[in-house]
Amino acid sequence: xxxxxxILSGTGVCALIGGxxxxxxxxxxxxxxxxxxxxxxxAQVLSRGLVSVRGGVLAVASPLLKHRFxxxxxxxxxxxxxxxxxWPCRVEDxxxxxxxxx
Length: 102
Hints:
By secondary structure, the protein is mostly beta strands. Helix content is 0%, strand content 45%.
């Protein structure tokens, strides 16, 4: 997708992968990939959300309504009935790779 050092730690970027908008976040030397669409508003904004840890869960808060989504699973921390898709993500030789199953 891109080089890891192109993403500031604690932030996200949006990428078009396999025809989908994917929010990719860097936390230290790790990367996480979730759907960019906020299921509460249908806006493509999660890549601009705030990354935080609460109750031991690494999550991104939507910039609109502030619902938090676990970066590892896509589950909504504030409303478990909602979730976003999440995909396997790894850093290989400094490059972020995301596996999108179609």
